[in-house]
Write a sequence for this structure.
């Protein structure tokens, strides 16, 4: 600090005004930071065209509650910061808050709770009470509508009991580590194969060919589980697997996507379940979850070969063993076997559900020529299902032969290759062509899956056509 001597010989120091810690110098940066993060957080709730990995995306289904949640949190945080800043510059307030609230030592703490600690505890409880209140009414109505549509009465204590039972079953399924295998199909496509206990299908009619699982891969993320639609027709694989086998093999299809830039700092994630503990030496990357899963092959593919030369990225038929946890299956409310004609309008990885539907169609076809060969509720000879058309839109550079798609009479695959200089798939034209060859009085069922824009366009087309029922594979109410 600068100093000078006055005429009386005394040395005085002068502190720069801007170096002092004052309420003004402390609060203004905090106010700016809070306003900036509040605006960003609230703005993100309006960005409805993003892809949400969650099973139920709050920004899509409950936009008002999501924004109120953000507002309440930042109001609470701003009030807390302001109070703490005022307390820092008022010694008298500090003395009052430091006084014991009660003259009894708390267990485990071996100290008396102060007025400040008690006030902060009540303030935190107030925050959670307000947030729970914001979501309670809307979520209660949401799940009440869903259970009512399923003709299940889950009000009051029975509803709470079912919720607890559901979570206990989910945690029980995720507790088991299953040996899986990731295989490369080329052009960025991969399959995941894993066994599941056969008991998970016990008591299930399996009328719908569409089933999804939540997959946890510890090396990709310690906390995340991601939903994947299986390309396996579960009823068929269950019926054709020997009765003395305790497990059945299922398969998923995905594409590798995202950045490959590795971050410098190691990841030290907090487990979201007690038994999911972070493994040592795990590095965080900015890659997508699917890319991290695919890189289990990439790392293997870059190891030196027998001649000492580094192998290139994994090509077709490369594979790697992985450890997975699976929760499911969850079946979608669809039964295409009740319709004469089924059309699958799919784009990109949305073909996964179409492959499972094709598996169901194959089972129905076989049951007509080989009566009693498959004793499953989904393969009754009385099914009118006689035609299945899969219209797949995929970029030319990403095209591969769809895995697990067995061609049979009545099954048709129409591939629309897109990219620079190529037109997009004309959904309306496809629907008109298929409907022109179908029974005009019979209903047609359409399965839709792909990017959000593709789904909305296909739904719009289906709504304008007569005798068409459709199911869009999106998380919706």
């Amino acid at each position: 600090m600068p100093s000078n001597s006055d005429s009386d010989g005394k040395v005085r120091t002068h502190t720069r005004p801007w170096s002092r810690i004052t309420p003004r110098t402390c609060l203004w940066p905090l106010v700016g930071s809070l306003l900036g993060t509040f605006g960003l957080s609230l703005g993100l709730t309006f960005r409805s065209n993003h892809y949400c990995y969650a099973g139920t995306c709050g920004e899509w289904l409950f936009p008002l509650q999501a924004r109120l949640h953000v507002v309440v949190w930042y109001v609470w945080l701003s009030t807390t910061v302001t109070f703490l800043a005022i307390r820092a510059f008022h010694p008298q307030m500090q003395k009052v808050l430091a006084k014991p609230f009660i003259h009894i030592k708390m267990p485990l703490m071996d100290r008396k709770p102060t007025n400040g600690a008690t006030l902060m505890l009540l303030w935190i409880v107030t925050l959670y009470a307000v947030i729970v209140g914001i979501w309670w009414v809307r979520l209660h109505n949401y799940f009440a509508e869903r259970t009512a549509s399923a003709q299940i009465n889950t009000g009051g204590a029975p509803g709470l009991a079912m919720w607890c039972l559901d979570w206990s079953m989910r945690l029980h399924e995720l507790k088991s580590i299953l040996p899986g295998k990731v295989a490369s199909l080329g052009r960025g496509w991969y399959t995941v194969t894993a066994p599941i206990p056969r008991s998970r299908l016990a008591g299930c009619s399996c009328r719908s060919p569409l089933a999804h699982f939540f997959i946890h891969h510890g090396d990709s993320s310690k906390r995340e589980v991601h939903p994947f639609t299986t390309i396996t027709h579960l009823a068929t694989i269950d019926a054709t697997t020997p009765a003395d086998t305790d497990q059945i093999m299922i398969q998923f299809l995905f594409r590798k996507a995202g950045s490959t830039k590795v971050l410098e700092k190691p990841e030290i994630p907090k487990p979201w379940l007690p038994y999911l503990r972070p493994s040592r030496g795990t590095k965080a990357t900015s890659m997508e979850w699917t890319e991290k899963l695919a890189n289990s092959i990439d790392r293997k593919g870059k190891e030196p070969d027998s001649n000492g030369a580094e192998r290139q990225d994994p090509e077709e038929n490369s594979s790697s063993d992985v450890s997975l946890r699976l929760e499911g299956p969850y079946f979608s409310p669809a039964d295409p076997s009740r319709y004469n004609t089924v059309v699958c309008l799919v784009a990109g990885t949305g073909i996964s559900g179409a492959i499972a539907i094709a598996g169901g169609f194959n089972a129905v076809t076989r049951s007509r020529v080989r009566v009693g060969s498959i004793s499953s509720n989904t393969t009754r000879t009385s099914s009118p299902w006689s035609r299945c058309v899969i219209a797949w839109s995929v970029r030319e550079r990403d095209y591969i032969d769809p895995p697990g798609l067995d061609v049979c009479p009545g099954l048709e695959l129409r591939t629309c290759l897109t990219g620079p200089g190529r037109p997009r798939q004309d959904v309306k034209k496809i629907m008109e062509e298929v409907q022109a060859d179908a029974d005009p009085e019979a209903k047609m069922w359409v399965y839709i899956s792909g990017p959000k824009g593709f789904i909305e366009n296909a739904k719009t087309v289906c709504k304008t056509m007569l005798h068409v029922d459709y199911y869009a594979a999106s998380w919706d109410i």
